[in-house]
Structure formats: structure tokens, C-alpha cells
């Protein structure tokens, strides 16, 4: 199969492992943005940033992606919750940026008598916080999770624990745990990205490094998928600089 990025109306692209790893810009990221930035939508399971804070962080790395062209799992989860349950009381185990985003969306942050528990990549996660989550859910609060990723790629080959690793601790304490996850491979982020781009599934391509989230989600939506780190494309650079390209997955 031949991939011609110029033939797609929308290019949906993961961030960690494709464009960046921690604070390191990966090969091909600058070329992709230079050539196709006007049709690129970043679709990420990021559960720490808001689009505004991430746009600033990327700008500091020399990458320009406007906040309104980012679809992030953590912020999107808060947006969906605020739309479906306006004014809901939420115990948010998340970054300060996401907590502020929740309040700005009209949600009420609280420690008890809550309707929902929201779990994201909480870098201050602790035994005390685990105890609170388990007992809030045990007594009736619904659990909303940003994503189920156990890790994401860090700089220089490092591993960054993700929301799914924290979720595993909760699930160990509550074997019959029920929850909803917003991040990939769930369809929500893909649907929002296509709407922003004004494109149909067949008019877009998804670039990602994770077969279980990016690949599975793209297949569910019938969006063509280019696997970074696979046999066809080691990095985004191979996808961008060679035309035509063979071996899409």
C-alpha cells in the first residue's frame, strides 16, 4: 500500500512516541508540521495537560500546534463530564492544570459526597489517595478514567507510568470495578478530531506508535493507520520525507 500524506484532508497524529518523547523532539516531527501542519490534529491520551498548557510546552520545544487543534484525553474527559452532568461534584485525582480545567468547565471539585471520581496521571498518587479513591467508588461514586495506558514513552528510551498503572492499583482493591475510559482506543477522541478537521474517516489518516490504542482505535473508526516504530516506518521522518511510501499498516 502506498501512503501519500498530501492525499488526506486530515492527518491525525499521536504525540508521545511519534512527535515527542518527554522534552525531546523526535525525528520527522518538525518536517511533518512544516509540510502538513495546516491539516494536522494532535490526538493524544495525554492526561496531564490541557490543550493550552501543552501548546505552550510544545512551543518551547519549537513545535507549533494550536490549542484548538489538539484533542487530549484528560481535558476531553472533563469536557464530556461537564456537558453530560453540569455542576457535578467530582473528586479529581489529576494535575493542577486539569483540576483548573474542570472548575472552569463548571464542575465542582470536592473531597466527599461526590458524584464522580476522575483519575488521570496523578504524579502525586499515594497510598492515601488510593485509599480515598477506593472508598469513594465503593460507596457509590462513578469512576471516570482519562485512559487505560500503563505507560507512555519517555525521553532517551525511558518509561513514564501512566493512568492505567494507577487504575491497576484501584482494580486490585476492587475486583468488580466498573469505570469509563475516554482515551484511545475509545472512539471519542477520534470523533472529536474528525469534527475539528471537517473530515470523514476515509479522508483522514492516523499516525501512531501504539497498536493497542492508536491502531485499534483507528481500525474501529475505519481510519487508515500508519504505524510508527513498526516495520514500515521507524520514525515519522520515514513517513514524511519519502514519496511514495510502501508498507502502511
UniProtKB/TrEMBL annotation:
GO terms for cellular component: cytoplasm. Pfam families: Hydrolase_6 (PF13344), Hydrolase_like (PF13242). It comes from the Bacteria. InterPro entries: HAD-like_sf, HAD-SF_hydro_IIA, HAD_sf. Transmembrane segments: none annotated. GO terms for molecular function: phosphatase activity. This is Haloacid dehalogenase.
